[in-house]
Amino acid sequence: MTLTSVRGSLRTRAVLEPFGIWVFTRLLMLALTYTGVILFGNALHDPQHPSFLHALLPAWANARSHGWDTQWYTDIARRGYDWSKSVGTSPTAFFPLYPLLIRLGVILTHRSYLGVALAISNLCFLGALSFLWRLTAWEFDREAAGRTILYIAVFPTALFFFAGYSESLFLLLSVASFYYLRRRDWLLAGLLGALASATRVTGILLLVPFLYEYARYSNFSWRKVDAKGLVGLALVPMGLIAFMVYLRATVGDAFAFGHYQAAWQKVFTLRLWAGTVESIRQILIVQPWASFFEVHNVINLTALVLFLASTLLVARRLPAAYTLYLVAFWCVTLTSPAIANGYPVPLISMSRYVVTLFPVFMVWGLVGSRGHWHDVYLILATAFLAVFTVQFLIGGWII
User: Fold this and answer.
1) What is the pTM of this model?
2) How many Å apart are CA 34 and CA 30, to the nearest integer?
3) Residues 6+ apart with CB under 8 A from 152
Protein backbone atom coordinates (compact mmCIF):
# COMPACT_ATOMS: atom_id res chain seq x y z
CA MET A 1 0.00 0.00 0.00
CA THR A 2 1.46 3.33 -1.06
CA LEU A 3 1.60 6.50 0.99
CA THR A 4 -0.91 8.09 -1.37
CA SER A 5 -3.43 5.29 -0.86
CA VAL A 6 -2.98 5.50 2.90
CA ARG A 7 -3.67 9.23 2.81
CA GLY A 8 -6.68 8.64 0.61
CA SER A 9 -8.13 6.06 3.01
CA LEU A 10 -7.66 8.42 5.93
CA ARG A 11 -9.68 11.08 4.13
CA THR A 12 -12.73 8.89 3.63
CA ARG A 13 -16.00 9.59 5.38
CA ALA A 14 -15.67 6.29 7.27
CA VAL A 15 -12.58 7.70 8.99
CA LEU A 16 -13.23 11.43 9.20
CA GLU A 17 -16.79 11.30 10.55
CA PRO A 18 -16.12 9.00 13.55
CA PHE A 19 -12.90 10.88 14.30
CA GLY A 20 -14.63 14.27 14.10
CA ILE A 21 -17.43 13.24 16.44
CA TRP A 22 -14.91 11.67 18.80
CA VAL A 23 -12.83 14.86 18.93
CA PHE A 24 -15.88 17.08 19.37
CA THR A 25 -17.32 15.03 22.23
CA ARG A 26 -13.91 14.66 23.94
CA LEU A 27 -13.57 18.44 23.86
CA LEU A 28 -17.08 18.71 25.28
CA MET A 29 -16.16 16.37 28.14
CA LEU A 30 -12.98 18.36 28.83
CA ALA A 31 -14.98 21.60 28.87
CA LEU A 32 -17.49 20.08 31.31
CA THR A 33 -14.60 18.87 33.46
CA TYR A 34 -13.02 22.33 33.52
CA THR A 35 -16.17 24.26 34.29
CA GLY A 36 -17.83 21.61 36.47
CA VAL A 37 -14.91 21.06 38.83
CA ILE A 38 -14.12 24.76 39.19
CA LEU A 39 -17.65 26.15 39.47
CA PHE A 40 -18.76 23.48 41.92
CA GLY A 41 -15.54 23.48 43.93
CA ASN A 42 -16.80 25.95 46.55
CA ALA A 43 -14.12 28.45 45.60
CA LEU A 44 -16.56 31.26 46.39
CA HIS A 45 -16.11 30.47 50.07
CA ASP A 46 -12.32 30.62 49.91
CA PRO A 47 -10.92 34.17 49.87
CA GLN A 48 -7.74 32.88 48.20
CA HIS A 49 -9.62 31.47 45.16
CA PRO A 50 -7.16 28.57 44.69
CA SER A 51 -6.38 26.84 41.43
CA PHE A 52 -8.28 23.62 40.72
CA LEU A 53 -5.83 22.38 38.11
CA HIS A 54 -4.70 19.58 40.39
CA ALA A 55 -8.31 18.39 40.77
CA LEU A 56 -9.33 18.09 37.11
CA LEU A 57 -8.00 14.59 36.43
CA PRO A 58 -8.82 13.12 39.88
CA ALA A 59 -12.41 14.30 39.41
CA TRP A 60 -12.83 11.40 36.98
CA ALA A 61 -11.88 9.01 39.76
CA ASN A 62 -14.96 10.21 41.65
CA ALA A 63 -12.73 10.57 44.70
CA ARG A 64 -15.42 12.12 46.87
CA SER A 65 -17.54 9.00 46.56
CA HIS A 66 -14.72 6.43 46.81
CA GLY A 67 -14.36 6.03 43.08
CA TRP A 68 -17.33 3.89 42.13
CA ASP A 69 -16.30 1.43 39.41
CA THR A 70 -13.20 3.36 38.38
CA GLN A 71 -11.66 2.71 41.77
CA TRP A 72 -12.58 -0.97 41.57
CA TYR A 73 -10.89 -1.37 38.19
CA THR A 74 -7.71 0.47 39.17
CA ASP A 75 -7.50 -1.45 42.46
CA ILE A 76 -7.86 -4.73 40.57
CA ALA A 77 -5.11 -3.60 38.19
CA ARG A 78 -2.88 -3.01 41.22
CA ARG A 79 -3.83 -5.91 43.48
CA GLY A 80 -5.56 -8.62 41.47
CA TYR A 81 -8.68 -10.34 42.81
CA ASP A 82 -7.72 -12.02 46.08
CA TRP A 83 -9.10 -9.35 48.43
CA SER A 84 -12.46 -7.93 49.52
CA LYS A 85 -13.95 -4.96 51.32
CA SER A 86 -15.34 -5.00 54.84
CA VAL A 87 -18.86 -4.23 53.57
CA GLY A 88 -18.96 -7.57 51.76
CA THR A 89 -18.32 -6.34 48.25
CA SER A 90 -15.64 -8.10 46.20
CA PRO A 91 -13.57 -7.29 43.10
CA THR A 92 -14.68 -10.64 41.63
CA ALA A 93 -17.88 -8.92 40.46
CA PHE A 94 -15.77 -7.06 37.88
CA PHE A 95 -14.46 -8.82 34.79
CA PRO A 96 -10.71 -8.87 34.09
CA LEU A 97 -9.88 -7.61 30.59
CA TYR A 98 -10.21 -3.89 31.32
CA PRO A 99 -8.11 -3.90 34.52
CA LEU A 100 -5.59 -6.17 32.76
CA LEU A 101 -5.20 -3.58 30.00
CA ILE A 102 -4.80 -0.87 32.65
CA ARG A 103 -2.06 -2.89 34.31
CA LEU A 104 -0.25 -3.43 31.01
CA GLY A 105 -0.61 0.25 30.14
CA VAL A 106 0.93 1.32 33.44
CA ILE A 107 3.84 -1.07 32.94
CA LEU A 108 4.49 0.23 29.43
CA THR A 109 3.98 3.97 30.02
CA HIS A 110 4.78 4.39 33.74
CA ARG A 111 1.77 6.69 34.01
CA SER A 112 -0.88 6.74 36.72
CA TYR A 113 -3.53 4.03 36.85
CA LEU A 114 -6.27 6.60 36.44
CA GLY A 115 -4.60 8.30 33.49
CA VAL A 116 -4.10 4.98 31.73
CA ALA A 117 -7.68 3.92 32.44
CA LEU A 118 -9.03 7.13 30.89
CA ALA A 119 -6.73 6.78 27.88
CA ILE A 120 -7.88 3.20 27.25
CA SER A 121 -11.54 4.15 27.54
CA ASN A 122 -11.28 7.04 25.12
CA LEU A 123 -9.17 5.22 22.54
CA CYS A 124 -11.54 2.26 22.66
CA PHE A 125 -14.46 4.63 22.14
CA LEU A 126 -12.82 5.97 18.98
CA GLY A 127 -12.48 2.41 17.72
CA ALA A 128 -16.08 1.67 18.67
CA LEU A 129 -17.36 4.68 16.73
CA SER A 130 -15.38 3.61 13.68
CA PHE A 131 -16.75 0.07 13.70
CA LEU A 132 -20.27 1.28 14.47
CA TRP A 133 -20.16 3.70 11.52
CA ARG A 134 -19.09 0.89 9.19
CA LEU A 135 -21.64 -1.56 10.56
CA THR A 136 -24.50 0.92 10.22
CA ALA A 137 -23.43 1.93 6.72
CA TRP A 138 -23.40 -1.76 5.83
CA GLU A 139 -26.94 -2.30 7.14
CA PHE A 140 -28.44 1.08 6.11
CA ASP A 141 -26.47 3.94 4.56
CA ARG A 142 -23.78 6.50 5.37
CA GLU A 143 -26.23 9.18 6.49
CA ALA A 144 -27.75 6.84 9.07
CA ALA A 145 -24.23 5.82 10.11
CA GLY A 146 -23.29 9.43 10.84
CA ARG A 147 -26.38 10.03 12.94
CA THR A 148 -25.90 6.73 14.80
CA ILE A 149 -22.44 7.52 16.09
CA LEU A 150 -23.49 11.08 16.96
CA TYR A 151 -26.49 9.82 18.95
CA ILE A 152 -24.49 7.33 20.99
CA ALA A 153 -21.69 9.86 21.61
CA VAL A 154 -24.06 12.41 23.21
CA PHE A 155 -26.41 10.00 24.99
CA PRO A 156 -26.89 11.16 28.62
CA THR A 157 -24.80 8.34 30.08
CA ALA A 158 -22.13 8.50 27.36
CA LEU A 159 -19.91 10.07 30.01
CA PHE A 160 -18.95 6.48 30.87
CA PHE A 161 -17.21 6.25 27.50
CA PHE A 162 -14.86 8.94 28.84
CA ALA A 163 -14.57 7.69 32.43
CA GLY A 164 -12.51 4.79 33.74
CA TYR A 165 -15.26 2.25 33.10
CA SER A 166 -15.39 -0.80 30.81
CA GLU A 167 -18.22 0.55 28.62
CA SER A 168 -15.97 1.76 25.79
CA LEU A 169 -14.01 -1.48 25.65
CA PHE A 170 -17.15 -3.60 25.68
CA LEU A 171 -18.82 -1.47 23.00
CA LEU A 172 -15.76 -1.76 20.77
CA LEU A 173 -15.53 -5.53 21.13
CA SER A 174 -19.25 -6.24 20.74
CA VAL A 175 -19.68 -3.96 17.70
CA ALA A 176 -16.50 -5.28 16.07
CA SER A 177 -17.62 -8.86 16.69
CA PHE A 178 -20.95 -8.11 15.00
CA TYR A 179 -19.16 -6.35 12.15
CA TYR A 180 -17.12 -9.44 11.30
CA LEU A 181 -19.99 -11.77 12.10
CA ARG A 182 -22.15 -10.09 9.47
CA ARG A 183 -19.28 -10.52 7.00
CA ARG A 184 -18.98 -14.19 7.96
CA ASP A 185 -15.43 -13.89 9.25
CA TRP A 186 -16.18 -16.49 11.91
CA LEU A 187 -12.75 -16.72 13.50
CA LEU A 188 -12.27 -12.98 14.01
CA ALA A 189 -15.86 -12.56 15.21
CA GLY A 190 -15.33 -15.38 17.69
CA LEU A 191 -12.04 -13.98 18.96
CA LEU A 192 -13.58 -10.56 19.55
CA GLY A 193 -16.52 -12.27 21.23
CA ALA A 194 -14.11 -14.04 23.57
CA LEU A 195 -12.56 -10.71 24.54
CA ALA A 196 -16.04 -9.27 25.08
CA SER A 197 -16.96 -12.15 27.41
CA ALA A 198 -13.79 -11.37 29.37
CA THR A 199 -14.95 -7.76 29.71
CA ARG A 200 -18.55 -8.17 30.91
CA VAL A 201 -20.78 -11.12 31.62
CA THR A 202 -23.15 -10.00 28.85
CA GLY A 203 -20.35 -10.63 26.36
CA ILE A 204 -21.36 -14.29 26.44
CA LEU A 205 -24.65 -13.25 24.83
CA LEU A 206 -22.82 -12.81 21.52
CA LEU A 207 -23.17 -16.57 21.28
CA VAL A 208 -26.86 -16.12 20.42
CA PRO A 209 -26.50 -13.99 17.25
CA PHE A 210 -23.37 -15.95 16.30
CA LEU A 211 -25.24 -19.24 16.43
CA TYR A 212 -28.14 -17.81 14.44
CA GLU A 213 -25.96 -16.21 11.76
CA TYR A 214 -23.87 -19.34 11.32
CA ALA A 215 -26.95 -21.58 11.20
CA ARG A 216 -28.49 -19.30 8.57
CA TYR A 217 -25.25 -19.33 6.58
CA SER A 218 -25.28 -23.14 6.74
CA ASN A 219 -28.91 -23.15 5.64
CA PHE A 220 -29.74 -24.68 9.04
CA SER A 221 -28.10 -27.94 7.94
CA TRP A 222 -25.41 -29.82 9.86
CA ARG A 223 -24.00 -31.07 6.57
CA LYS A 224 -22.74 -27.59 5.68
CA VAL A 225 -21.02 -26.88 9.01
CA ASP A 226 -17.28 -26.23 8.68
CA ALA A 227 -14.40 -26.06 11.13
CA LYS A 228 -13.93 -22.27 11.03
CA GLY A 229 -17.51 -21.61 12.07
CA LEU A 230 -17.39 -24.11 14.91
CA VAL A 231 -14.06 -22.77 16.18
CA GLY A 232 -15.36 -19.19 16.04
CA LEU A 233 -18.49 -20.19 17.94
CA ALA A 234 -16.45 -22.04 20.55
CA LEU A 235 -14.18 -19.02 21.04
CA VAL A 236 -16.94 -16.68 22.26
CA PRO A 237 -17.31 -18.14 25.80
CA MET A 238 -13.56 -18.61 26.26
CA GLY A 239 -13.11 -15.23 27.95
CA LEU A 240 -15.72 -16.08 30.58
CA ILE A 241 -14.38 -19.60 31.01
CA ALA A 242 -10.83 -18.33 31.50
CA PHE A 243 -12.06 -15.90 34.16
CA MET A 244 -13.92 -18.69 35.93
CA VAL A 245 -10.81 -20.88 35.94
CA TYR A 246 -8.81 -17.99 37.37
CA LEU A 247 -11.39 -17.33 40.09
CA ARG A 248 -11.44 -21.01 41.02
CA ALA A 249 -7.68 -20.95 41.44
CA THR A 250 -7.46 -17.66 43.35
CA VAL A 251 -10.61 -17.33 45.47
CA GLY A 252 -11.92 -20.91 45.32
CA ASP A 253 -15.21 -20.01 43.60
CA ALA A 254 -15.54 -20.12 39.82
CA PHE A 255 -18.91 -18.33 40.02
CA ALA A 256 -17.81 -15.60 42.42
CA PHE A 257 -18.61 -12.94 39.82
CA GLY A 258 -22.28 -13.83 40.25
CA HIS A 259 -22.36 -14.73 43.92
CA TYR A 260 -21.03 -11.35 45.04
CA GLN A 261 -23.77 -9.47 43.20
CA ALA A 262 -25.81 -9.95 46.37
CA ALA A 263 -23.60 -7.31 48.00
CA TRP A 264 -25.20 -4.83 45.62
CA GLN A 265 -28.68 -6.00 46.69
CA LYS A 266 -29.24 -7.98 43.50
CA VAL A 267 -31.23 -11.21 43.44
CA PHE A 268 -31.96 -13.79 40.77
CA THR A 269 -35.57 -14.07 39.71
CA LEU A 270 -37.42 -15.43 36.69
CA ARG A 271 -40.01 -12.69 37.14
CA LEU A 272 -38.57 -10.38 34.50
CA TRP A 273 -41.04 -7.70 35.48
CA ALA A 274 -40.04 -7.65 39.16
CA GLY A 275 -37.59 -4.74 38.91
CA THR A 276 -39.94 -2.70 36.77
CA VAL A 277 -42.91 -3.20 39.06
CA GLU A 278 -40.86 -2.39 42.14
CA SER A 279 -39.48 0.74 40.46
CA ILE A 280 -43.00 1.96 39.76
CA ARG A 281 -43.97 1.21 43.35
CA GLN A 282 -40.96 3.15 44.61
CA ILE A 283 -41.88 6.14 42.44
CA LEU A 284 -45.59 6.25 43.20
CA ILE A 285 -45.80 4.97 46.78
CA VAL A 286 -42.55 4.57 48.69
CA GLN A 287 -40.34 7.55 47.86
CA PRO A 288 -41.35 11.16 48.64
CA TRP A 289 -42.19 13.30 45.64
CA ALA A 290 -39.16 15.01 44.09
CA SER A 291 -36.77 13.01 46.27
CA PHE A 292 -33.27 11.73 45.50
CA PHE A 293 -34.28 8.10 44.99
CA GLU A 294 -37.40 9.03 43.06
CA VAL A 295 -35.43 10.79 40.34
CA HIS A 296 -33.03 7.83 40.10
CA ASN A 297 -35.94 5.48 39.60
CA VAL A 298 -37.46 7.77 36.98
CA ILE A 299 -34.16 7.90 35.06
CA ASN A 300 -33.65 4.14 35.08
CA LEU A 301 -37.27 3.30 34.34
CA THR A 302 -37.30 5.77 31.44
CA ALA A 303 -34.16 4.17 30.00
CA LEU A 304 -35.71 0.72 30.32
CA VAL A 305 -38.99 1.67 28.63
CA LEU A 306 -37.26 3.63 25.86
CA PHE A 307 -34.86 0.85 24.94
CA LEU A 308 -37.45 -1.91 25.31
CA ALA A 309 -39.74 -0.06 22.92
CA SER A 310 -36.82 0.51 20.56
CA THR A 311 -36.13 -3.24 20.58
CA LEU A 312 -39.40 -3.65 18.69
CA LEU A 313 -38.15 -1.14 16.14
CA VAL A 314 -34.90 -3.10 15.82
CA ALA A 315 -36.95 -6.23 15.13
CA ARG A 316 -38.62 -4.46 12.21
CA ARG A 317 -35.61 -2.71 10.70
CA LEU A 318 -32.55 -4.91 11.29
CA PRO A 319 -31.73 -8.59 10.63
CA ALA A 320 -32.83 -11.07 13.27
CA ALA A 321 -29.35 -11.43 14.80
CA TYR A 322 -29.60 -7.95 16.30
CA THR A 323 -33.00 -8.63 17.86
CA LEU A 324 -31.81 -11.94 19.29
CA TYR A 325 -28.87 -10.14 20.90
CA LEU A 326 -31.18 -7.56 22.50
CA VAL A 327 -33.68 -10.18 23.69
CA ALA A 328 -30.84 -12.12 25.29
CA PHE A 329 -29.66 -8.94 26.99
CA TRP A 330 -33.09 -8.24 28.45
CA CYS A 331 -33.51 -11.83 29.64
CA VAL A 332 -30.21 -11.68 31.52
CA THR A 333 -30.42 -8.11 32.81
CA LEU A 334 -34.01 -8.24 34.02
CA THR A 335 -33.44 -11.45 35.99
CA SER A 336 -31.15 -9.63 38.45
CA PRO A 337 -32.94 -6.56 39.84
CA ALA A 338 -31.70 -4.90 43.02
CA ILE A 339 -34.71 -5.68 45.18
CA ALA A 340 -33.11 -7.33 48.22
CA ASN A 341 -33.73 -5.76 51.63
CA GLY A 342 -36.08 -3.13 50.23
CA TYR A 343 -33.38 -1.47 48.13
CA PRO A 344 -34.78 1.85 46.84
CA VAL A 345 -33.45 1.68 43.24
CA PRO A 346 -34.46 -1.70 41.77
CA LEU A 347 -33.18 -0.97 38.24
CA ILE A 348 -29.85 0.36 39.43
CA SER A 349 -27.40 1.21 36.62
CA MET A 350 -29.96 0.51 33.89
CA SER A 351 -29.29 3.90 32.29
CA ARG A 352 -25.62 2.90 32.00
CA TYR A 353 -26.18 -0.67 30.85
CA VAL A 354 -28.29 0.37 27.86
CA VAL A 355 -25.69 2.76 26.46
CA THR A 356 -23.85 -0.19 24.87
CA LEU A 357 -26.97 -1.51 23.09
CA PHE A 358 -25.73 -0.36 19.70
CA PRO A 359 -28.57 -1.88 17.59
CA VAL A 360 -30.95 0.62 19.20
CA PHE A 361 -28.75 3.55 18.22
CA MET A 362 -28.54 2.14 14.70
CA VAL A 363 -32.31 2.29 14.22
CA TRP A 364 -32.40 5.70 15.89
CA GLY A 365 -29.86 6.79 13.29
CA LEU A 366 -32.18 5.49 10.59
CA VAL A 367 -35.31 7.27 11.85
CA GLY A 368 -33.32 10.44 12.62
CA SER A 369 -33.98 11.69 9.11
CA ARG A 370 -37.70 12.04 9.86
CA GLY A 371 -39.40 15.10 11.32
CA HIS A 372 -37.88 16.80 14.33
CA TRP A 373 -36.52 13.64 15.95
CA HIS A 374 -32.92 14.61 15.23
CA ASP A 375 -33.11 18.10 16.74
CA VAL A 376 -35.17 17.06 19.76
CA TYR A 377 -32.83 14.17 20.51
CA LEU A 378 -29.68 16.28 20.32
CA ILE A 379 -31.11 19.00 22.56
CA LEU A 380 -32.39 16.65 25.26
CA ALA A 381 -29.52 14.18 25.16
CA THR A 382 -26.76 16.79 25.27
CA ALA A 383 -28.48 18.71 28.06
CA PHE A 384 -28.80 15.64 30.25
CA LEU A 385 -25.27 14.54 29.34
CA ALA A 386 -23.98 17.83 30.72
CA VAL A 387 -26.03 17.50 33.92
CA PHE A 388 -25.02 13.89 34.51
CA THR A 389 -21.36 14.59 33.79
CA VAL A 390 -21.13 17.45 36.26
CA GLN A 391 -22.94 15.38 38.88
CA PHE A 392 -20.41 12.59 38.34
CA LEU A 393 -17.46 14.97 38.54
CA ILE A 394 -18.48 16.42 41.88
CA GLY A 395 -18.76 12.94 43.36
CA GLY A 396 -22.48 12.45 42.97
CA TRP A 397 -24.32 9.22 42.22
CA ILE A 398 -26.14 9.37 38.90
CA ILE A 399 -26.82 5.73 38.06
Assistant:
1) 0.94
2) 6
3) 129, 132, 158, 355, 358, 361
